[in-house]
């Protein structure tokens, strides 16, 4: 049996047509975010799309905005970053880039992205003169083979 952390997420609708985030299935990690505006995204274009909501993310947590798999895989729309800090009280927006060669249209109420609420660890940052050695060392992209 899964043991979930219980929390209340306070969400304010900034416009009457805004939709509250929702979970499509009971065990989903991400809650769906919906657009509050009609937007056309041309190939290669970057846009910022409003959700029409603001929220109170509890201290010690963060809202991370991620792609909806179908939208990213089938359509080619990718979200660009998306960290909603606990102290932020403005409107949640989602940045996209259209990586496809066709335009895409969102209409008011469409699902466009998802948000995960995750616990945050804020480490003490300590400057050192040298880092400990590891087997991998400074090997970067592709350093482990195929």
Description:
The chain has 146 residues and is mainly beta. The chain has a single domain, classed as Distorted Sandwich (Deoxyuridine 5'-Triphosphate Nucleotidohydrolase, Chain A). It contains one helix and eleven strands, in the order ββββββαβββββ. The strands form four sheets. Strands 2-11-6-8 form a four-stranded antiparallel sheet, with no helix packed on it. A three-stranded antiparallel sheet has the order 4-9-7. A two-stranded antiparallel sheet has the order 1-5. The longest helix is centred in the middle third of the chain and has 7 residues. It is globular and about 55 Å long. The chain starts with 9 loop residues before the first strand and ends in a 27-residue tail after the last strand. The relative contact order is 0.24. The mean pLDDT is 93.
Structural class: mainly beta
> How many domains, as an integer?
1
Q: Could you estimate the helical fraction of the residues in percent?
A: under 10%
Low-confidence runs (pLDDT<50, min 5 residues)?
none
- Report the strand count: 11
Distinct helical segment count: 1
For the record, the CATH class is: Mainly Beta
The whole-angstrom Rg is 19 Å
* Series of secondary-structure elements, N-terminal to C-terminal: EEEEEEHEEEEE
Largest sheet: 4 strands, antiparallel
Mean pLDDT reading:
93
Bulk shape:
globular
């Amino acid at each position: 049996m899964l043991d979930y952390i219980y929390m209340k997420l306070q969400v304010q609708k900034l416009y009457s047509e805004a939709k509250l985030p929702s979970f499509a299935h009971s065990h989903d990690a991400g809650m769906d975010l919906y657009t509050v505006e009609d937007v056309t995204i041309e190939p290669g274009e970057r846009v910022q799309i409003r959700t029409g909501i603001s929220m109170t993310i509890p201290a010690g947590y963060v809202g991370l905005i991620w792609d909806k798999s179908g939208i990213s895989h089938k359509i080619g729309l990718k979200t660009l970053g998306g960290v909603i800090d606990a102290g932020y009280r403005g409107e949640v927006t989602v940045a996209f880039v259209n990586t496809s060669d066709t335009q895409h249209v969102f209409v008011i109420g469409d699902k466009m992205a998802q948000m995960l609420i995750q616990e945050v660890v804020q480490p003490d940052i300590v400057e050192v003169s040298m880092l400990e050695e590891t087997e991998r060392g400074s090997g970067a992209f592709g350093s482990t083979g195929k």
